[in-house]
Amino acid sequence: MSNLEREAVPALCGGRGFVVAEPVRELLSPRQVRLGESSEVRRLLPNLGRRMVGAWCFVDHYGPDDIADEPGMQVPPHPHMGLQTVSWLHEGEVLHRDSTGSLQTIRPRELGLMTSGRAISHSEESPRSHARFLHGAQLWVALPDGHRHTEPRFEHHADLPVVTAPGIKATLILGDLDGATSPGTAYTPIVGADLALTRGADVRLPLEPDFEYAVLSMSGEAHVDGVPLLPGSMLYLGCGRAELPLRAESDAGLMLLGGEPFEEELIMFWNWIGRSQEEIEQARQDWMEGSRFGEVKGYDGAPLPAPELPPVPLKPRGRVR
Q1: Which residues of the chain have pLDDT under 50?
Q2: Where's the Pirin C-terminal domain (predicted)?
Q3: Which among 27, 29, 166, 229 would be 20 to 30 A from 245, CA to CA?
Q4: For the whole model, what pTM was predicted?
């Protein structure tokens, strides 16, 4: 999924200056964002108060939406650079196409991981014959400077490591957790995991104290370190934790996001991550002229035009506003 807002606002992210070096409980409320004609998502990152969690720099939660009589997700071809996209579903299917020639249907708890590197374009849509409900999250991971010009690629991993204990099943999306390692390619120390809790679960999840973390609630009723978390909200946890207490009032679904605090300062504008005004200007020009980002073949519709750049200079700054 893309940032489809026509009035894009630059997000100035990165740097260690605002990383909370101790455990905190900072509740992040979502911003409702309309995507296309009928879809609406809850945007958790970038947030008014916090821009990144480790290298995670964009989080949208959507659904569950009843699309039985609707076309469902319809995201036309659009560009990316300097980041990875992570597609994660709890219900439904998404058909991914990109300019490297990839064509893949992504299903619940399968990892669709696209590394844009220097430039890629892609589309996402619900298949014509699709499940009744669509529910998932779309996330971006910022690429560090040494890898942000890499060749674009797409990975699909249907068989992911699972860590279990009484009351919890953790599917590892990216990085490492409790001795398990995801097959997805990561370019920074990072973790992403899908946590399925059963009603009455009372568990402690092992964490890396040097990482900063956040937890996104996907469904159900759960307490994260004593804080009740409703679906579509996210709790920022800071650093310095060796474990995380989790308690479920009902069957619940959470996403654990974490990683080593991202040192570099970034500019995120529309669907691009760069380091300077000139990079963003060049990306916009290349996309509008039809060069560099390639062509998505097979999508029935025109690509998205890029929004106008803001009248003020784009400068990389810190992690929070």
Answers
A1: 6, 16, 321
A2: 193-292
A3: 29
A4: 0.92
